[in-house]
Amino acid sequence: MTREQLFAQIQQKRSFLCIGLDTDPAKIPAHLHSAADPVLEFNRQIIDATHDLCVAYKPNLAFYESLGPKGWETLAQTLDYIPEGLFTIADAKRGDIGNTSSMYAKAFFETLGCDAVTVAPYMGEDSVTPFLNFEGKWVIMLALTSNAGSLNFQMLELQNRELLFEKVIRTAQKWGSADQLMYVVGATQTTHLRKVRELAPDHFLLVPGIGAQGGDLEAVARFGMNRQCGLLVNASRSILYAGRGKDFAQQARAAAQQVQQQMAELLERHFSQA
Ligand SMILES: O=C(O)c1cc(=O)[nH]c(=O)n1[C@@H]1O[C@H](COP(=O)(O)O)[C@@H](O)[C@H]1O
After folding, report:
1. Is the pTM of this model over 0.95?
2. How confident is the model at residue 234 (pLDDT cuts 50, 70, 90)?
3. Which CATH number fits the domain that encloses residue 269?
4. Which alpha helices (DSSP H) does the chain contain, by range?
5. Which of 72, 145, 147, 254 is 20 to 30 Å from the Cα of 210, by its Cα?
């Protein structure tokens, strides 16, 4: 999917919501446990109930890999079920020496057919660039994450007073264009969004951390939106587990709709001022 196609979908749906398919068997409603594949059944019903409200789905690999070989099959079937035209992100946070990264890229882009994969930058350029060699596919690189541990390394001040996450973005700007590279910036990190936008004005940002982690969507939009929206904001638990009963899919839809309506207002405000 191209950047223009992604923006067109955002405009059409008045949404920049990404729903995280972080499906935990311990949290899915009891009545689904009699299904042949409860996780797949849960995902299907969530997708049916929400696909008109979001522009992307992001299954986190941990939730599927933890189920063994069957989990991989569930992930593949979930991805197949996502309607054409929605952006799919394998949240795998990979990155290794070059030939290994190439095989990871094949796994997510060719075998699973995802549009994007999350990648960790710690091993540097030759660990990230193999993911950038796939036409029409996207690398989403961790820059400033939503968790408390982001303080350990990402906020370290370098000799020139630049913070490490700023250096990561500044350096990666030379690796990939805004048509193939996005950055992860946590919704809990809005005080740094202005700086992120200074360094990467055109790149899309994947912003997890609203909902269960308490991030502020309004502030994300105020400091992070660019002329093509430039944001995919993820929520997982606050949507998936909005209800735990037989009506869980309707409850998930209601939670997604609430976020989408706020997004529609934020888009309206941003583009009427532009
Ligand atoms: O790469 C990510 O998606 C990610 C980066 C980050 O900084 N923080 C973060 O929470 N995530 C992921 O985003 C999702 C957040 O889930 P909820 O907190 O349930 O909305 C999880 O799949 C996390 O692994």
Report:
1. yes
2. very high
3. 3.20.20.70
4. 3-13, 38-50, 62-65, 69-81, 98-105, 125-128, 150-153, 164-172, 193-199, 217-224, 237-240, 248-273
5. 72
